[in-house]
C-alpha cells in the first residue's frame, strides 16, 4: 500500500509538460518582462503577488487545453492572452506582430511570457527583434537565446537570412 501511495505522490507531482526542458522558473529579461517554460499554479500565484499584471501563453491549442492556466491567471487578478504557436509552423510575422501588439499595449505592466520550455518564447522574441525592431541577425539571435531559444535557433536563423 505504501508503494502505491509513493507512486501516486510522484505521479501527481510531475509537471504537465515534464518532457520539456528549458527555463523552469521565471527569468526577468527586461524591466517589466519575465519569460519561462510552463508555469505551475503556484508560480502564477507568486507572479501575481509580486505585482504581475499580464500572462501571455505561447502554448499550442492542444497544450493549452491540458492546463487550467487561464483560470489560475484570472483568479489571481491578472489578464491572460493566448498566442498559439504550434512549433516552427507558428513562427510567422502575424504571430510576432500579435505578441508585439500585446506587449506594446501593456508596456508599463509586468508581463510573463511562456511556452512549454521557453524555446518558442525565445524564437518569437528573436524574430521580433529582427523584423520589427531592425536588429542585426546575430543580436536578434542573442536576444532570442536570452529568452529561451534553443532547438528552434536553426529555423529562426534561416528565417532571418531570407
TrEMBL record:
Protein's UniProt name: Ser/Thr protein phosphatase, DSPc family protein
SUPFAM superfamilies with a match to the protein in the record? (Phosphotyrosine protein) phosphatases II
Species lineage: Bacteria, Pseudomonadati, Pseudomonadota, Gammaproteobacteria, Alteromonadales
